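This part of the workshop introduces the protein records we will be handling. An example says more than a description, so a record of this kind follows.
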Amino acid sequence: MPDKALPNKLLTNLWGKLPLTGRMRNAVMWWLNPKFSVGVLGLVQDEDGRVLLLKHTYRRDKPWGLPGGGLKSGESTQECLLREVLEETGLHVEISRLANVSVHPSRRLLDVVYACRPKPGNTLARFRPNVEVAGARYFDLNALPQAMSPRQKRLIKQAIMDNPPNEVESRRGRRGDC
């Protein structure tokens, strides 16, 4: 049986000997690797433990879901979440922990979910329906709407019940960080 590690060793050895600048190596790696979109979702809970859900206008069958959106170039996942929640709901939130990270290879999507809470004094009274969101309200964990994807329901329950709390490291990615 052939050694599967042998081709990797040969390629790694060859890669190290190629006369490529750092910029050229980065370009080759970018070109050879798959590209993914990054989505960031907020699991926002109020003081009673209820979960904030939004009624999205672009989801026909299952419009209710977590607030969030796509990562823009140059922003961190935390910055993206704070921006998206504010844009969609008018709420300022505090991130308490990373709740979940999941990859959806068929959709070429990476979802990052943070648990958060509204900052003191922030309520849904500031919410205004808009092009993306027709409604916003808090739901008890045992009364999540039927018109919501089963995947998001599982994600919410898993994130709340199974994940131990941890602090979110708030730093911007620098060159060389993984």
Notes: DSSP finds four helices and seven strands in the chain.
